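Entry for the shared binder. Reason: the reviewer on the internal report wants the predicted structure included alongside the sequence.
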Amino acid sequence: MASKRIKQAHEMIDKTKRYELGEAIEILKSSPKAKFDETVELHMNLGVDPRKADQQIRNSLVLPHGTGKTLRVLVFAEGEKANEAKAAGADYVGVDDLIEKINGGWLDFDVVITTPNLMGKIGRLGKVLGPRGLMPNPKVGTVTMDVSQAVSDSKGGKVTYRIDKFSNLHILTGKLSFPSEKLKENILTIISAILRERPAALKGIFIKSITISSTMGPGIKLDVAAATLESKK
């Protein structure tokens, strides 16, 4: 049974309406709060076929105001690159010792970065890291020789996104405690980035729907045309 707080939040939303982004954010922020600082997420449904290689949407970007979450970053690197990773603030740095721990069930980290020369070894962790979205990938900047920049980006508000089999994207945009303008700028940055991902061969509608929600709150559907236009300004 839904709690009184959740019922109140649902009652604030007109399910038939498509909201302007600013108005949707204000509804989220004025809804009855949970006892913790909720995360705000963006959910998009795209008009692509994820079974086609040229319509796979996967990338990363650094949000202008961060995510409000401090990520635990693990780096597979040796020698000077290991030193660079530590200096940049990586939480865990190593190679064989970390591989052994992960194979033993340890997964207390949020981002995995590796230098390209170690991918042969790291590839063996695919069955463990892959299903959790943690496998390093050059497309999203986590297979790189510039480990210092990769660590800084991850610590500074980098988000990665990947389309699921239903053509949906779910992307962290910040915390409910963020000022409205900062949340709005983060969300518009994401929408702008997704628009640039439109496959060249795609015909028809690219972004079918956009919804924002907080961790414990209901989804609020946005006016897609208005949001995409605003993201281009």
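Summary line for the report: The chain has a mean pLDDT of 92.
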